[in-house]
Design goal:
alpha/beta, six-stranded parallel β-sheet, four-stranded parallel β-sheet, elongated, Rossmann fold, 434 Repressor (Amino-terminal Domain), 344 residues, 3 domains
Length: 344
Amino acid sequence: MAQPSGEARRRPSMDDVARAAGVSKAAVSKVIRHAYGVSPEMRDRVERTIAELEYRPRVAARVMRGQSFTIGVEIPNLGNEFFTEVMAGASSKLRGSPYQMIIAPGLGDGRGAQVLESLSDRQVDGMIAISPGVSSEWLERLGEEIPMVMLGRHDRAISYDTLTNDDALGAELAVSHLIERGHQRIAHLTISSDEESWPRTPHGIRHRAYIDTLEARGLTPVVSTCEYSSASAYAAGRELIASGQITAIFVGNDALAIEVLRALADLDLTTDSVAVVGYDDIPLASHPRISLTTVSQFGRHMGALAIELLLERIVGGRTDSRHEVVTPELRMRASSAAPAPLLN
C-alpha cells in the first residue's frame, strides 16, 4: 500500500534513526559529530541506519527545543592579545541583545574537536571558532547541526561560514616593505605544524606568500619554526639573530614578534641591527617602547562581523554559506629600520 503523500515527504528525524538502530538519540548525535566514546560497532550500526533512512541532520531541529541565547566561542589560547581584540569586537556587537558568549580556550593537541563538541553539547545557539585544528569534513558535519562561523579558515564551506583576513596580501605587504627598506636577507619565523591542513591556515598562507615574494625578487628564503609558546619563539628568534646571517625577520604574528624583540634586547641589540615585522597589530604593538611594524587585520572588526554572520543564521534563518575576506593594512613603525651599512 502506498504511503500517504504527507508521510512520503516527511524527512526522517534523529529519533527515527535512534529507534531503527536500537540506540539512544544521544548516541546518534555522537556518531554524527564523530565524538568520543562511541564503539566501532555502534558507529557502524548507526551509520548504516543513517544511510538506509537517508537522514540528513538539520540545523532547524535545534530551534524546536528552544533557544538558550548563548553563543559558544572557541579560541586557541588565552595568551594572544589578538584573540582578545576579536572577543572585544564580538562582545560590542552583542551589546543590547539577549545573547551571551561562552568562551572556551583550547586544550592543546586535539583541542579543536573536544572544545567544539563540548560547546555543542551545552546547547549553545551557535558557535564561533578561531582556526580550530580539525578537518573541514568534520566541521561540515557539525555545521549541519548548529550555526557556525569559522575565523581564519580558508575553506570553501557548505554548512558553515568562514571569515578570513587576506593573509597572502598581508604577508606580501610586510615582506615588500622590508625589501623596499633595503633588506635582502629576510628570515621568516612561523608556527611549526605537521597538520595536512596547515597550508590553508593563516600561518601557512603567510609562509607561502613570504617565499613567493622573496623568490619573485631573486632573494633566498630563510624559514625558522617554533612552537606556539613564548619560550619557543624567544629561542628561535635569538638563534636567528645570533646567526648574523639576516638583517630582518618577518614573524607570523605579533605575540611571537614581541619575543623576538625580547631576544634582541637580551643580546644588547635593537631593531637598528635586525628589523622585525609582525602580524595582527595588537594594542601593545603601538606602544612607543615597542613600536612594532605590523600588519593590521582589524581584530575588533572581525569579531563584530563574525557575530553579524552568526546572527543571520540563528535569527534570520540563513542557511547558505558565506565567505568574507578582510583586507589587511601595513602599520609602519620604528622596528623596520633600514639595514645598517656594510663595513669595509
